[in-house]
Design brief:
The protein is an alpha+beta fold. The chain is 32% helix and 26% strand. The protein is built from 6 helices and 6 strands; from the N terminus they run βαβββααβαβαα. The protein has a 6-stranded mixed sheet. The radius of gyration is 16 Å and the shape is globular. It starts with 5 loop residues before the first strand and ends in a 14-residue tail after the last helix.
């Protein structure tokens, strides 16, 4: 594997959209994630998308009382104050991963494909380390290493996800996974 640590997290489509659009520059957690700056966080977007769609880089880690975290990171959390503090309700300290350089994969790795690579794969509830022995590690990292020219928000993965998300939006009235600038007309 390369010089960075790699982890995989699961996010709801709304939160993934906000990370890749730059509106959400942190990942908020109720428990400590023993990661270091430089770690690459791979993002699995939950159903109805159901795919590993991209990654962001951890630049800093902060632990503090929920109110202090809100004061410092609320504006870049992609959440309302009520959502932010409600998520951390009942914990003395929350954790923030500060993220940068969010990028889509050109070709998302679907849940079915991930299960074909790693038999029995289930999207993580908290997170999973993608170390040298993890079956998905080589596939994800190899695919990403061949994408030196992809744009953070306008890759083929973004277009593919926009198509899927826009179909879901039209059918179910939910929000699109990607910014309106990537919407595909019906």
């Amino acid at each position: 594997m390369n010089k960075h640590d790699h982890i995989l997290i699961s996010l709801a489509p709304r939160h993934a959209e906000n990370i890749f659009a730059g509106r959400k520059q942190i990942e908020l957690r109720r428990r400590t994630m023993h990661v270091t700056p430089g770690t690459l966080v791979w993002v699995y977007v939950t159903l109805p998308i159901g795919a590993i769609v991209g990654r962001a880089k951890v630049t800093a880690i902060h632990s503090a009382a929920p109110g202090m975290l809100w004061q410092q990171f609320g504006a870049v959390s992609g959440l309302t104050e009520s959502e932010f503090l409600g998520y951390l309700d009942g914990v003395a300290e929350g954790m923030v991963l500060v993220l940068e350089d969010a990028r889509y994969l050109k070709l998302p790795i679907s849940l079915e494909a991930a299960r074909g690579i790693a038999a029995g794969f289930h999207p993580p509830q908290f997170f999973v380390r993608l170390d040298d022995g993890h079956p998905l590690a080589a596939t994800i990292i190899d695919q990403a290493s061949r994408q030196r020219d992809f744009h953070p928000a306008y890759s083929a993965a973004a277009q593919s996800l926009a198509t899927s998300a826009n179909k879901i939006t039209r059918k179910h009235g939910t929000s699109s996974l990607l910014p309106d600038s990537l919407s595909i007309a019906a």
